[in-house]
Design brief:
- By secondary structure, the chain is α/β, with parallel strands linked by helices.
- The chain has 10 helices and 15 strands.
- The protein is 34% helix and 24% strand.
- The strands form 2 sheets. Strands 14-13-12-11-7-10-9-8-15 form a 9-stranded mixed β-sheet. A 6-stranded parallel β-sheet has the order 3-2-1-4-5-6, with helices on both faces.
- The protein binds nicotinamide-adenine-dinucleotide.
Length: 355
């Protein structure tokens, strides 16, 4: 009997959709059938490169016409909810790009729809597929760190305001560096600390560079659209978890710092850990010990991205377990949502418990 192929579609065919396509093209058991995007040039480029024939301006037309098994949702953040819900209701499994949504309420509706429709919803968090993150999660599960007391989370760029896409537009993205890049480091720290339930958040945000012309200072991504820039340059926040742990989060597109910083550190009562470099700090043999793995598989971006895509296909076709369920995306969304709500109300602590 011929192998069943996963009939696959894409909603949003821009930059990151291309990375999904490049990886899915490796699989004999995936047939890339169609894509929907409001911009014809992206569809044409990707259609020719990957031999994807179906091209639609409206994702609902694609869902009605193509009898798809699964889709990747790769639209701007504000447009994650509607296509995800439409695709789930059309019978598709969904891999939604990060962040899950632009708000926790939207994320809740997405997760609820997946349950009601009995379809799989995964969040495209590739960083938890990074061997460093797997190493730290395993160390936590083995008890090497004890109880996590504190996590220090940083996604800081000295000057890295995107000069493409709509990353500076709050109404389309839901926020700036916190929701765009902070989400990556926050999700892997949360995963490595055993996914505790977040209960409250407090934050402050600052805008002081992105809303001004970029021309005067040399930097790699000059020319961002400062006139439509309505997001923060820097966010600093604190999250409390039901088990008593606390996380401090810093995220910036632009900050006056020495260099970019992409890392998290865990402080446990038995041991500590850092992601970059991947290390564990403990007391053993009468000494304070620093331990690091002797070998790790490919930790580069491509490696973890490929693992994320392969895992989703295996989850859909062969029912293999996923480490990136929509529920984990929702937990992170609650944190992001609470941090932004707090910042909007002057920095007071807000409740982010699930109802
Ligand atoms: N996992 C990662 O590392 C990663 C990296 C980059 C982006 N992303 C996420 O992927 C999403 C897209 O980012 P991108 O960098 O690909 O942006 P992009 O601007 O390159 O692509 C977005 C695409 O969505 C299309 N679009 C807009 N409105 C639409 C609509 N109504 N219907 C159909 N298509 C529509 C645009 O025309 C565009 O082609 C964002 O949520 C972003 O956070 C994830």
């Amino acid at each position: 009997m011929p192998q069943k192929k996963l009939r696959y579609g894409f909603i949003g065919a821009g930059g990151i959709a291309g990375a999904h396509m490049r990886n899915l093209a490796r699989r004999d058991d995936v047939e890339m059938v169609a894509m929907a995007d409001v911009a014809e040039p992206s569809m044409q480029r990707h259609g020719e490169q990957f031999g994807i024939k179906g091209r639609y301006a409206d994702w609902n037309e694609m869902l009605a016409a193509e009898d798809l098994d699964a889709v990747s949702v790769c639209t701007p953040n504000k447009l994650h909810e509607a296509p995800t819900i439409d695709a789930l209701n059309a019978g598709c499994h969904v891999l939604c790009e990060k962040p899950l949504a632009h708000s926790a309420a939207a994320g809740e509706r997405m997760v609820a729809t997946a349950r009601e429709a009995s379809r799989k919803l995964c969040i495209a968090f590739q960083y938890r597929f990074n061997p460093r993150t797997q190493f730290l999660r395993r160390a936590f599960e083995d008890g090497a760190l004890g109880n996590i007391l504190y996590a220090r989370v940083r996604a800081l760029r000295r000057r890295g305001i995107p000069n493409w896409g709509v990353f500076g537009r709050k109404e389309l993205q839901g926020g700036g560096p916190l929701i765009d890049i902070g989400v990556h480091v926050l999700e892997m720290a949360h995963y490595a600390m055993g996914s505790p339930e977040p209960v409250s958040a407090a934050a402050d945000t600052f805008t002081y560079i992105g809303d001004k012309p970029s021309e005067e200072i040399e930097s790699a991504w000059k020319g961002w659209d400062y006139k439509t820039y309505t997001v923060e340059d820097l966010a600093v926040g604190r999250i409390r978890f039901a088990n008593g742990a606390v996380a401090h989060v810093e995220a910036a597109f632009a900050a006056h710092i020495d260099k970019d910083d992409w890392n998290f550190e865990l402080f446990g009562d038995k041991g500590g850990a850092s992601w970059n470099p991947p290390r564990i700090f403990t007391d053993e043999h009468g000494h304070m010990m620093d331990k690091s793995p002797g070998w790790l598989p490919n930790t580069a971006f491509d490696g973890m991205f490929t693992r994320k895509m392969m895992s989703f296909v295996d989850h859909c076709l062969y029912d293999k377990p996923t480490i990136a369920p929509g529920e984990d995306g929702l937990a992170v969304q609650r944190m992001l949502d609470g941090l932004y709500r707090s910042a909007e109300s002057g920095g007071a602590e807000v409740n982010i418990r699930a109802d």
